[in-house]
Amino acid sequence: MALELHDVEKHYGAIRPLRIHNLHVTAGTRTTLAGLDHQAAEAFVNLVTGATLPDRGDVVCLGQPTAAIPDGDAWLAFVERIGILSDRIVLLEAMTVAQNLAIPFDLEVDPIPAGVLARVAVLAAEVGLDPSMLGTRMADADVHTRAKVVLARALALDPEMLLLEHPAAELPLDAVRAYVTVLNRIWERRRLTIVALTMDEKFGKALGGRLLNWQPASGEFKERRSWF
């Protein structure tokens, strides 16, 4: 099992605490959790990655109870197994697309070492970034390019799980399907676990896999058995 949350409660500044009664996500699957707004999704991601601990209940991610992570070094090793796609990820606007993609591999990016540049090229191709965009300053990149850079950064260290925190919120409607197509190709190739947090059920339908609707008062997830 890739992810398990049992009777979790976490106060995070909203009217009511984040409640998750029972959630089980099988390794290598795609799961969309619909109904979590941006603030709730951030709280959920922080719990799953062990950045915060629940006020009550248990979180087990990739076989690791987050409450049992002993120290900062162990936490860093654990969190490297999880890719996070979020608008909270900082992109360096004065640097190029290639430099932003190189940062997970090496902080020396001016110039980018040849070995790192080769890895950047592979990563860019995987997320559908045109090679001609690699030299573009991040500040000049369009919304489509920025979304792909954030996705590539999440994949850079070969995670076992990918957390998508409102992944299509900044994309125009006509770009969402193409973006999900890229995600599904990545899933088919890597067979990593994907958990998408969104308010948009249409995104979940396009992604495929399971769609669970969150009930904030009870913390229950209700599974949609049909997309129609």
Fold and architecture overview:
With 228 residues, the protein is an alpha/beta fold. The protein folds into two domains: 1-81 and 160-228, P-loop containing nucleotide triphosphate hydrolases (Rossmann fold), CATH 3.40.50.300; 88-158. Helices cover 33% and strands 24% of the residues. The mean pLDDT is 95.
Give the tags:
alpha/beta, 2 domains, 33% helix, 228 residues, four-stranded antiparallel β-sheet, 24% strand
> Portion of residues in helices?
25-40%
Which class of the largest domain in CATH terms?
A: Alpha Beta
- Count of separate structural domains: 2
Largest sheet, order of strands side by side?
A: 6-7-8-3-9-10
What separation lies between the terminal Cα atoms? 28 Å
Helix vs. strand class:
alpha/beta
Strand content: 15-25%
Number of strands: 10
Residue windows where pLDDT falls under 50 for at least 5 positions: none
Q: Total number of helical segments?
A: 7
Question: What can be said about this structure in brief?
Answer:
With 228 residues, the protein is α/β, with parallel strands linked by helices. Helices cover 33% and strands 24% of the residues.
Outline the secondary-structure elements.
Elements: E1 3-10, E2 18-25, E3 30-34, H1 38-48, E4 56-61, E5 64-65, H2 72-79, E6 82-85, H3 97-102, H4 114-126, H5 143-155, E7 161-165, H6 173-190, E8 193-198, H7 201-207, E9 210-215, E10 220-223
Parallel strand pairs: 3-8, 3-9, 6-7, 7-8
Antiparallel strand pairs: 1-2, 1-4, 4-5, 9-10
